[in-house]
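Can anyone check this?
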Amino acid sequence: MDIFQPFLVVDQIVASDKLPPDKKISEIKTILLDFHESRQAVEKQISEMLENTDSSAGDSEFYNVLEQKSLTLQKRTADIIRLLQVDEKSVNQDLFKALQYFQTKDGHLEKNAPQEFLSEKEQNAMNKDKKNFPIPLYKILLFQ
């Protein structure tokens, strides 16, 4: 069973120019009610898959994808972060130090960049490769 199928159908209904609004609502309601019956089975399958998945491998893959996709966000936010003025008293001190470091270095980071603002899981992802400092991952986590 494709768990996304009901949402694809709803999307088609919403996009339709041939159906009046009341008919769209009626059809969407029918689809969602039908899906509700099979939702428990889907939720059970997802839970079982999550239990059988090595969470550290999933985390690692998540951070790899995040790092690879960070360039778009960096282009949009780096200049904002460089110019951002933050009141030291109103923000977490570890985050403040990281922002100051980023601004002082004008975004050109090195492996000694402050990491105390990161969660333990994020720090582990940052330090998985002792040789290379993952600058794109650091930036995306800082901007986040």
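Reply from J.R.: I decoded it. The mean pLDDT is 80.
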